[in-house]
Amino acid sequence: MLPSGSRMRRGEEFADAVRKGGRAGRPTLVAHLRVPPEPGETDDPPLVGFVVSRAVGGAVVRNRVKRRLRHLMRERLDRLPRGSLLVVRANPPAASARSERLAAELDVALDRLLRRRESPETRMDGRR
């Protein structure tokens, strides 16, 4: 399970990540990442929140999707910069997606978001 100190709970944090952060969409999920202006100056852990609407399914299905996403994010938490806010919104196909597909799409979304915030000079792969 995701550590308690890394779980987003306040509505303002969700709104800040969605409105001011970058966005990367995939068929099963959409990720919004807000990185503080000076990420190296904060000791706050990254916070992660999940949005699973009724369009995904009934209460049992929504809770299952949230549990699966929390489990996947626990393994990827160290990739996020300190003090960042990440909101993962599940789309309706997430209800029937296998865990491997959810993991792959979460990785792609995170890679895109983290790559966007790198400047061209600091990229390791040499691309611009």
Automatic annotation (TrEMBL):
InterPro entries: Ribosomal_Su5_D2-typ_SF, Ribsml_uS5_D2-typ_fold_subgr, RNase_P, RNase_P_CS
Keywords annotated in UniProt: Endonuclease, Hydrolase, Nuclease, RNA-binding, tRNA processing
Region ranges (Disordered): 1-21
Swiss-Prot/TrEMBL catalytic activity: Endonucleolytic cleavage of RNA, removing 5'-extranucleotides from tRNA precursor
Class of enzymatic activity (EC top level): hydrolase
Domain of life of the source: Bacteria
Biased composition (Basic and acidic residues): 9-19
EC number: 3.1.26.5
Listed GO MF terms: 3'-tRNA processing endoribonuclease activity; ribonuclease P activity; tRNA binding
Family per similarity comment: Belongs to the RnpA family.
Subunit field text: Consists of a catalytic RNA component (M1 or rnpB) and a protein subunit.
UniProt protein name: Ribonuclease P protein component
Species per Swiss-Prot/TrEMBL record: Planobispora rosea
